[in-house]
Design brief:
Pfam families: HxlR (PF01638)
Strand content: 5-15%
Number of strands: 2
CATH class of the largest domain: Mainly Alpha
Structural class: mainly alpha
Shape: globular
Number of domains: 2
Helix content: 40-55%
InterPro entries: HTH_HxlR, WH-like_DNA-bd_sf, WH_DNA-bd_sf
Distance between the termini: 36 Å
Strand order of the largest sheet: 1-2
Radius of gyration: 19 Å
Largest sheet: 2 strands, antiparallel
CATH architecture of the largest domain: Orthogonal Bundle
Organism: Lichenicola cladoniae
Keywords: DNA-binding, Transcription, Transcription regulation
GO molecular function, one term: DNA binding
Number of helices: 6
């Protein structure tokens, strides 16, 4: 296998390839997380929900005017399925639903802020 394998150069606490590869390795976990936030509107939705504790879909639609209702609904459902946001249906007529970050979604904030900081540094250079 030799020195050409890049994942062996990843600094890790243990000298084990399993940390980077395999179904329980770093690649699998990072890929799963990236899939959860992949999508044109998922990050803007998450950042918007970081700013306000709870929002209705109409408020999100106003704050993200370029997103269609279909895409907003689709991304909200996917974020809910991935347990990054919680949907509260008040059971009222007319329909009243609010979205808020779940505990898992709040735990993602430092990662997203680190990505933003990385991007800011790249622009500055």
């Amino acid at each position: 296998m030799g020195n050409t394998i890049r994942h062996l150069k990843v600094p890790i606490a243990r000298e084990s390839r399993a940390v980077c590869l395999g179904p329980d390795g770093a690649v699998a976990h990072v890929s799963r997380t990236m899939k959860m936030i992949q999508g044109r509107w998922k990050l803007p939705i998450l950042f918007r929900l970081y700013a306000d504790p709870a929002m209705r879909s109409s408020q999100l639609r106003q704050d993200l005017p370029a997103v269609s209702q279909k895409m907003l609904t689709q991304h909200l459902r996917q974020l809910e399925a991935d347990r990054l946001i919680e949907r509260t249906d008040f059971g009222e007529k007319p329909l009243r639903v609010e979205y808020r970050l779940s505990e898992l979604g709040r735990n993602l904030l430092p990662v997203l802020v680190a990505l933003r900081d990385f991007s800011t540094l790249q622009i500055a250079e």
